[in-house]
Amino acid sequence: MPRKASLVKMAKSKAHSKKQQKRGVDFKKIKRKIGRKLPPPKNATNTEVKSKAITLPEQSVASEKGGLAVNKKGLTLKELLQQTSHHNPKVRRDALMGIKDLFLKYPAELTLHKYAVVEKLRERIGDNDKSVRETVYQLFKTVIFPSCKEDNQGLFISLTMAYIFNAMTHLSIDIRLMAFKFLDLVVQNYPPSFFLYAEKILQNYENILRKNQYQFYVQDKGKLKSVLAGLVYCLSLVPCNKKEVDSCEKNEAGQGMLHAFEPDVPTESAGFPVIFKKLKDLMPALADCFQDFVSLARAMPVLDAQSFDCMLGILQCIDIAAKFFIYGTNKGKSEYQPHGVPDVTVWDENFSSLLMKKVLQVFPLNPTCHVSEKDDDRYFILNTLVTGILLQFSEWICPPAIIWEKFLEFIENALLGKIYSGTRSGKVVWEKHLLSLLPFFPKLVSQVPSNWRSRLLQAFTKAFKDCHPESSLKLECLSTIEDMLIPKEDRLYLDSSDPEILDHQIAWIRELSPLLILLGDKHPSCSQVVLHLQLRLGQCALLNSSLAWEYDNMQYSLLEFYCTCQDDGKLHYGPFIRLPRDSQELSLCCLYYFSNLDSPLLQSIASCCLCPDLEPFILLRSIEVLHSAYAAGHVKITDYISFIITLLSRFKVLPENIYPVKESDIKMRNRKTYKSVTTVVCSNLSQIGDSSLVFQILEKVTVGQILMKPPLDNACAMLRMLAVLDSKPTRLSEQSIVTLSNFISGYLIDVVHCIPEDHDESKVSFPTLLYYLLPCFFLFDRSHKLLNLVLKTMGSLITASSSSQCSPNYIQYAMECSSRINAIVSVLVFMHKDVKVQKIIFAFKAEIVHMLQKILSLQSSEEISMMMFIELSSYPSILYLLRGNS
């Protein structure tokens, strides 16, 4: 029953629902689930546009770029430059990398479009993205600047400076630091840009170094180090002496710059007064920064590298500025003091007070506790810079006695080498930075009390002796010694009247000769510095008797520098032979200033002159200097003549054969040099005094050397020397005439034997033969007795046998009888050809006829050629003598 009732009820409900559906619904209620997207309304407009691609082969993108330079991704320069302004930093960075790739592949693109490229890329100097800034920096550094070095860089430098200055004022510290990095890059590649924008550059450095600015990144000292390095380079361009000022002004005058793209760019560089004023404003910021770093360093157990670099950069900036201030002050207020700038003297006092409070009073910088070896070297460098700043301002800064004592003690310990770590690297650091103090040493020693003068001189002498011979420290010590020994108008020098000062001066002088020998020929630049000091010392030694005596004694220690003779008789040449020409000439000039040039040194120099490796110029220069020394009374006449005789008698002429010269002998020939030496010596001998007195001194020595049978060239030179000093009638003694007659007869025979028997004056051999014969003819003209003895001696040689005991002693080449007789005939012929000798020989008719008869009697001999008779028959005057006698 209940089941039936339920079925009836369901049937009624279905019928009711169908009835309701037929009646209709005005608003259909749709149930929506939460979180699902609503469907669009039925009356919504469909805005979707559909299209199909149309293929047009003539309008492809690839064909539009045909012939254009593209990078690896196929983008042109124009497209890449457009992408550098993209909102996505990755796209900007990739575009910059693409530009670099394109310029490396197509360098001509940069040349053609460099100004447009720089004008677009400068916008990225202050980019908000760090990677973009670094990429554009590397692009300028590695590609753009190196490719435009030979072009007018001033134009595109002017395109970038406005953006660099704008980035320096950015709120972001990183962007500001990158701007200084860009500025350093610009100044490195185009130094005149600093002077064009000096006022703005120094102002921005002052702003970033202010106390409320640098403290933001003092924890990241590497960034401050980069800023200071750029400032150091900029200040290094500022001239600090007259020479640098002239060079700077010359460079500025030659730099023509175009500013068509930048109307607000300055048309001329900032003058020195502007730089002067801005540096004044910059110094307090540097001093405050340095003082804070000193406090920070003393609080640290170890001085880290970045803090050291920052402190070093600050001190370098102060040091350069100090040099510029001093030069500007000494130059004069009228030239360097602009309108509105305080008085230079007052300004120096203010700056001195600033240095005293912020820099000098913290000296020494070392902490009281023990530090490492590396810290020792770092603090030594910093203390050396502070000391140099004090010494530069010594005229304006008068520190208290306690502080002054600390500085003097530091200088003494630095010279003694007590401060550096003691390691090998520490010694290098010590030598390098000690150099900066030595230029102030002469002035410092002349101003300190006597007790400190003694201590400092002892320390300096020890440092000079202990440092390496070819080191930079040794060279700087030599320069300092010159300042303390040589008086100059613009600076003080040590008075040698003080015995203690004189002792040190003597010690320095005695080190010069051993130093020259120790340097040898391996370090010519160092040797030249020593020789220059020796020359300057010799030039001023005449004004100081104490130094002159010590300078004269120097010659005995110089023997090893020139040449010495060993126990076995061999010569040992010193460095002089192998040094460059300018050093050799310096050493020769030093010889002139020895007040008494002794014979041992003259012998040593003569041995050098005889060395085949010595240049002819230096050989002749040696003769010139020694002749000047003799003329000044620094060489005895006997020593001078001994030098000349040694030079002419022992000079080895090459090649030995006089004529002809083989091709293999051309490289080693020096006969022309020896002839020049002979000419110079003969000229000097005619000027050294009374010719008769000189001849008396020279005669015995020369004849003694001739008796030793020297080679023909040497014999000719000595005969020429006698002929120059001889007169008519002759000054030769009877003994010398007899001795020379035996030698000259053999000499004449050897000369015509060694030179071809061609008497044609047009031949090359004829002037050569006359060169060797003329000295004898001059002597014959002045002494007829000498000619008579020579003719008799040659007559006796006609029948002498080469193997007999009466063989001539002075004949070296024509030993055979036939060659000897041929040579005698040639000698007679040449005597006949000389006008003066021809007149003389007729006075000795008997001797000549006797010789001719001996020659004719030997015509039938197999050893004698008939060519002699043919030779004689060509001279009727000789045959006339023969016929007249018969």
UniProtKB/TrEMBL annotation:
Q: Where is the signal peptide?
A: none
TEX10-like TPR repeats domain location is 507-863
Q: Where in this chain does the record put each Pre-rRNA-processing protein Ipi1 N-terminal domain?
A: 155-215
Instruction: Tell me where in or outside the cell this protein is found.
Output: Nucleus, Nucleolus; Nucleus, Nucleoplasm
Cellular component terms per the entry's GO annotation: nucleus
Task: Name the domain of life.
Answer: Eukaryota
Region: Disordered, residue numbers: 1-51
Q: Which family does it belong to?
A: Belongs to the IPI1/TEX10 family.
Name-wise, this protein is Pre-rRNA-processing protein Ipi1 N-terminal domain-containing protein
Please name the source species: Castanea mollissima (Chinese chestnut)
